[in-house]
Amino acid sequence: MVRERILIAGLGLIGGSLAKAFKKCGYEIHAYDINKSAVEKAICEGIVKEKIESLDEAEDEYAFSFICVPVLESIPILSKLSSKIKNGIITDVGSTKTQICKYSIEHKITNFIGGHPMAGTEKIGYEYSFDTLFNGAYYFITPTGMNRKDDIEKLKNLLQSIGCKVEEIDFELHDKITAVISHLPHVVSAGLVNMLSSSEIYCKFAGGGFKDITRISSSSPKMWADISVSNKNVLLELIEAYIELLKNFKLSLQSENYNEIYSYFEKAKLIRDKIVSDEK
């Protein structure tokens, strides 16, 4: 027997992986994407039951609706869906939460709960999606004071059913955390890669270590431009802090202060080793 219906708006890596994971759990999946071929492929694979040609067609029949598009496109979609869907839960998967959560508060969208899976790869598009992407992954949800407790629990239960470790968190704190562990690293990674553009010989000899620390630069430029703009204030503060860190290292290097140079790398090693150890 078919369980509840879920709408996925945006069938890329995250949306496609959610669709596959929910389908595996027995849900009926309906999907919308401006890339019609992605939806057609998902239908051919038996993942998606029905294609939504326009979000204006969305009806109040979905238990859950997931907005899986770049963050600057999320609010217009939320505006459309919230005018149609009054009973089901609407959520998103964007990497920043403050803008969309504040919008939901201002417009009294009580059935919207912000969400963000800490999962993904550097690949983009439905063709790279897979149903186990969220196994063991942290998944932030950012309820507001308007949300019903039973709606929050329903969303938690749904996400846990596909293997997520759900963390409930304030939306502004979420944006500070993700700026440190995700957004700034993408800016730094892109900067390192862009330094190679001055000479082809750098690219020729870029080896495993360089490729490891810059893997994330193969991610969607559109997605990361949107994230940077939507989390501008927090990211600007972190960039200033990072510049100050590099300035201090530069001074240590200029003065040949070996102890400070050693401590810079030692501290990083100890912290990273702990992060890796805690994952086991």
Question: What layout of secondary structure does this protein have?
Answer:
Elements: E1 5-9, H1 13-24, E2 28-32, H2 36-44, E3 50-51, E4 64-67, H3 71-84, E5 89-92, H4 98-106, E6 112-117, E7 138-142, H5 149-160, E8 165-168, H6 171-195, H7 200-205, H8 208-213, H9 221-230, H10 232-254, H11 258-279
Helix pairs in contact: 3-4, 6-10
Explain this structure to me?
The protein is α/β, with parallel strands linked by helices and 280 residues long. The protein has two domains: 165 residues, 3-Layer(aba) Sandwich (Rossmann fold); 106 residues, 6-phosphogluconate dehydrogenase C-terminal like domain (6-phosphogluconate dehydrogenase C-terminal fold, Orthogonal Bundle), CATH 1.10.3660.10. It is built from eleven helices and eight strands. It has an eight-stranded mixed beta sheet with strand order 3-2-1-4-5-6-7-8, with helices on both faces. Helix 4 links the parallel strand 5 and strand 6. The two termini are 38 Å apart. This is Prephenate dehydrogenase. Keywords: Oxidoreductase. One of its GO terms (molecular function) is prephenate dehydrogenase (NADP+) activity. Its EC number is 1.3.1.12. Pathway: Amino-acid biosynthesis.
The rough form would be described as: globular
Percent strand equals 5-15%
Largest sheet: 8 strands, mixed
**CATH homologous superfamily descriptor of the largest domain:** NAD(P)-binding Rossmann-like Domain
DSSP, total strands? 8
Average pLDDT value? 94
Radius of gyration: 21 Å
| Helical content class | 40-55%
Order of helices and strands: EHEHEEHEHEEHEHHHHHH
The side-by-side strand order for the widest beta sheet comes to: 3-2-1-4-5-6-7-8
Q: Unreliable segments (pLDDT under 50, ≥5 consecutive)?
A: none
| CATH C-level category of the largest domain | Alpha Beta
Number of helices: 11
**Assembly status:** single chain
Structural classification: alpha/beta
Predict the CATH topology of the largest domain: Rossmann fold
- What number of structural domains do the residues give? 2
Distance between the termini: 38 Å
CATH architecture term of the largest domain: 3-Layer(aba) Sandwich
Domain Prephenate/arogenate dehydrogenase: 4-280
Protein name: Prephenate dehydrogenase
Organism: Caldicellulosiruptor hydrothermalis (strain DSM 18901 / VKM B-2411 / 108)
Keywords: Oxidoreductase
